[in-house]
Design a protein that fits this description.
This protein is mainly alpha-helical and 160 residues long. The protein has one domain. α1 packs antiparallel against α2. The N and C termini lie far apart (85 Å).
Length: 160
């Protein structure tokens, strides 16, 4: 504490200005990598959309000429394309949140404002929340496949 009784009160609860600068430096150090991952996610999204469109057109054409009943082959290609479009969203949203996160880091870097740091961390939270939910869904599917695989093996062994 200083001897000046008329100075504004200072708080060192969160470390003061030194901590803000440290947080900004760490965020700035990750900005390049966040931007790279974001761009790669958007590229993956674009490729997945292209594959979905190619599936819709290509499989519809191939299946229609395979002697299947009219419209059934075309429907299969369209359904597979829609499934791929749905999976493309798994690449879009994380890339979008990383892009917003990198932009918010840049804004915080230039403004030196704590509310911009909080905004950046909010996008980071959204990214990790999405990744965590997808990870849990994958784990549930793997567990279900494992259980059904064992059950299928038991049923096949009993049936033979």
């Amino acid at each position: 504490m200083t001897d000046n009784n008329y100075s504004a009160p200072q708080s060192e609860v969160l470390g003061g200005q030194e901590t803000i600068e440290s947080v900004l430096q760490n965020l700035t150090d990750t900005k390049l990598w966040v931007r790279l991952c974001s761009i790669m996610g958007f590229i993956m999204f674009g490729f997945t959309v292209l594959v979905a469109v190619a599936m819709m057109v290509g499989m519809s054409t191939l299946m229609a000429g395979s002697g299947m009943p009219s419209g059934m082959g075309a429907g299969f290609g369209i359904v597979m394309g829609i499934v791929y479009l749905a999976f493309s969203l798994l690449a879009f949203f994380p890339a979008y949140w990383l892009h917003k996160y990198a932009n918010a880091i840049g804004q915080a870097q230039s403004s030196r404002n704590m509310s911009d740091v909080v905004e950046a961390l909010r996008y980071q939270k959204s990214f990790w929340k999405f990744v965590g939910i997808i990870t849990l869904i994958y784990m549930i599917f793997f567990a279900l496949f494992f259980v059904f695989g064992i059950l299928g093996g038991i049923i096949a062994a009993v049936a033979s």
